[in-house]
Every structure is written in structure tokens, then in C-alpha cells.
Amino acid sequence: MAFRADEAARVGFEEVLSYLVPRARDVDESQRASSKEKLMDLHDELGPVVDAYPSWHPLVSHHDDRNPVTIPGNGCGYKGLDHTRYFANGFITCPYDDGQSVIDSVTALPYHRAAHITAERLDVKLYNPNTTPILVRCNWEKPLSADRMVPLSIAIALILEKEVPCSEWSTVAETWESMRPYFLGRPHGARSSLFVSQETGQTIKKIWDALIYTGMFGPIRV
């Protein structure tokens, strides 16, 4: 089935509303309305809801490159995440405490040349009235494309920065089919996702194919 970005984005946001807007039995209607309005504003600001990030994305890139990570968690420096939903340029997590461990872990993240990551408490009720919603935001140093996708100039630089050093220890080269979720994020199509356009994804594929056929990573896995 062809990848339909608009449909994937719509379904993703509907799921986030269903998951993060507290149930009517837990809060009153005015609080539910405020929660929904806040999520709609954040959706406009942060971009579409996603299932996972490209492994080069600044929100998850501080990981062991032998074990790439695509979902925020302990493996890429975060502490205290709970009941979390992801947007293209940030995520919301709702721990059953004051969220300070999340904020402290974001503050402790290493420097990233492409973006700085911030965390803040939100002033609405999300998921459950007993949780503290925390917004973790990816603030890009350079502007995104007009379509709010990550431009090729940024994406390919981050991909090469992560992948080329792997040639020092890799024994086989992974094909595009294997690497697609790590380069495109999820959901994704054959060469595009909610992070990169069809044109950008096609160029990433061409560059990756050229790299693996040099033999720098070892024989191609079949």
C-alpha cells in the first residue's frame, strides 16, 4: 500500500487526542477542552505525530551507534519518561511525579550541533490529572524546509556523521531496506516519511547505496 502522509498524520493525531486528553470521568469538560486546545496548538508547532524518529534525529541521536535508538528513553539519555507520545519536533511525556527527572536529564544531554533540546512543564492536564505533562522540544539551529520537512542539507550531514564512523567496526553493509526505518523514521513509505520528503528520501537512498557499494562497511548483507 502506498504511503499517504496526510492520512498517517491525521490518524496519528486522532490517537494522541484519544490517549492524552483525560477521560470525562477524571476531569471536567472545561479541562478537557483546554487539554485538547493545547494539543492542537502543539501539533501546529511541533509537526505531525510520529511513531519513531530517524536514528540521526537530535531527539534520539545520543546513543550507542552499535545499537541505534529511534524512540526516546534511557538508551539516548532520558530519565523518567512515562505515557509518552511523539511529534516530529518534540514529544510529550506524563510521569506520575513532578517530572523533574525528565527535565534534569534533558539539561544533561550532550551538545548537539544541529539543535538544542529543551524541556518544560505544561499548564494543562494530560493523560491523567495526577501526572505532570512535560514537553521536550527540538529547537533546530537552522530553519526547516517550507513544508516543515528536514531538508537534505541537514539530514544527510547527520546521517553521514552517524554512519561513516561505523565502517571502523562493521562486518557487513546493511541495504536500504534494512536501514529505511533508521533513516526515515516511522511511519514511512519507500523513500519518504513525515520527516523527509520524497525527493530528500530518494537522494538519501542514492547516497547510501553508493556508500555500501564501496565496500567500506564490508560485504552487503543478503
Structure report:
With 222 residues, this protein is an alpha+beta fold. The longest helix is centred in the first third of the chain and has 18 residues, at 29-46. It has two domains: 5-140, no CATH class; 152-212, no CATH class. 35% of the residues lie in helices and 10% in strands. A hairpin with a 2-residue loop joins β2 and β3.
Q: Quick gist of this model?
A:
With 222 residues, the protein is α+β, with helices and mostly antiparallel strands. 35% of the residues lie in helices and 10% in strands. The chain contains 6 helices and 5 strands; from the N terminus they run H-H-E-E-E-H-E-E-H-H-H.
Indicate the multimeric state: single chain
Strand order, main sheet: write it out: 1-2-3-5-4
The counted number of beta strands is: 5
Q: Helices and strands: which structural class? A: alpha+beta
The pLDDT mean sits at 95
What percent strand? 5-15%
H and E order:
HHEEEHEEHHH
The total number of structural domains is 2
Low-pLDDT runs? none
Query: Mind summarizing the main beta sheet?
Result: 5 strands, antiparallel
Overall radius of gyration: 18 Å
- Cα distance, first to last residue? 24 Å
